[in-house]
Design a protein that fits this description.
0% of the residues are buried. The protein is mainly alpha-helical. The chain has a domain of 52 residues. It is built from one helix and no strands.
Length: 75
């Protein structure tokens, strides 16, 4: 058996993987997370505004139909 095929008894001095920084130090990921939260809030606001507009338009349509029917019976 050659010595090239034998496993070393101790781990290598250099780490196999790079040492990762703490999340607060990673500026790029922090900015991406902030942008994702902001966009999520904007989407939620947009959906709420659309629901409000739809309800408002439905109510206006019902009121117009009621006024039109009252005017038709009075004439």
């Amino acid at each position: 058996m050659s010595s090239a095929n034998v496993l070393q008894s101790a781990p290598p001095e250099e780490p196999l993987y790079p040492i990762l920084t703490a999340p607060t130090e990673n500026f790029r990921l922090q900015m991406i997370d902030e942008m994702a939260k902001f966009l999520g809030q904007e989407v939620g606001h947009f959906r709420l505004v659309n629901k409000y507009k739809q309800a408002k338009n439905s109510l206006i349509g019902v009121l117009r139909a009621q006024v039109f029917s009252e005017q038709r019976f009075q004439a």
